[in-house]
Design a protein that fits this description.
Elements (H helix, E strand, L loop, with lengths): L6 E4 L14 E9 L18 E2 L13 H6 L19 E4 L2 E8 L8 E5 L10 E13 L7 E4 L10 H7 L21 H7 L1 H6 L6 E8 L3 H7 L1 E2 L1
Parallel strand pairs: 2-8, 5-7
Antiparallel strand pairs: 1-7, 2-9, 3-10, 4-5, 5-8, 6-7, 6-9
């Protein structure tokens, strides 16, 4: 469970915040989140000119929107919004030691960049690496810092934007921050989100919220670029 003073403000409704890009390598902590909203990097105005493509968004049924429609569509966190976070942005387990996923960063300059994450102090994560691509941008409040990564995880907590999941699925799951607290609770999610919810316990061996991590920028795997539609 995330402490009440730890709050992540996602900027899915607004242009991303401009701040210094994440260093090419460093240390931080991992957190989880999934608010069902249009990711901030899906607004073309938030992307650097060096970025190729724009992250896709989906309609309420997780069907990808046409690119031109997606770029201007109102976020699903707003009333009558039509652009939501696609279920394909769920974590993807490749094998026992490798997983892919998508993340919230803290600078629009990080949009579509990829980072390899490792958890050196977690025994269950020995020898494991998760490569994530930044598709969303947040503001830090409380204990969250710009060195941290929020892995987009169904059932990982909606943060302050609970409208998106309520509009798309009719409800939210678990705590507002941190989301569900066990693998068993993932079964309360729609079937298309359950596997992505369970990566924490099934692959990482625990909740992962607040875990120490090390990160370094890497070339984006083709699998992630194919899902998101963008690359930096």
């Amino acid at each position: 469970m995330i402490p009440s003073n730890l709050i992540l403000l996602l900027t899915s409704l607004l242009p991303a915040t401009t701040s210094a890009p994440t260093a090419a390598a460093g240390t931080g902590k991992s957190y989880t989140g999934w608010d069902c909203c249009k990711p901030a990097c899906a607004w073309p105005s938030n992307l650097l000119k060096t970025v190729t493509g724009v992250p896709i968004t989906c309609d309420i049924n997780n069907t990808p929107l046409p690119l031109k429609t997606s770029q201007s569509a109102k976020s699903g966190c707003e009333k009558d919004g039509t652009a939501f976070l696609c279920d394909s942005y769920s974590p993807l387990v490749i094998n026992a030691n490798t997983a892919y996923g998508f993340a919230v960063g803290f600078s629009d300059a990080d949009c579509c960049k990829c980072f390899a994450l490792t958890w050196p102090t977690a025994r269950s994560m020995k020898g494991k690496t998760m490569t994530v691509q930044v598709i969303n941008v947040g503001e830090t409040v409380g204990n969250v810092t710009t060195k941290d990564f929020v892995v987009q995880t169904p059932g990982g907590g909606v943060g302050p934007n609970d409208e998106g999941c309520r509009y798309q699925y009719g409800r939210t799951w678990g705590n507002q921050y941190g989301g569900v607290g066990s693998s068993g609770e993932c079964k309360a999610l729609p079937v298309n989100l359950q596997e992505g919810c369970d990566w924490r316990w099934g692959w990482a061996g625990g909740d992962v919220n607040g875990w120490n991590l090390e990160y370094k920028q890497v070339a984006c795997p083709r699998e992630l670029v194919k899902i998101s539609g963008c690359e930096a």
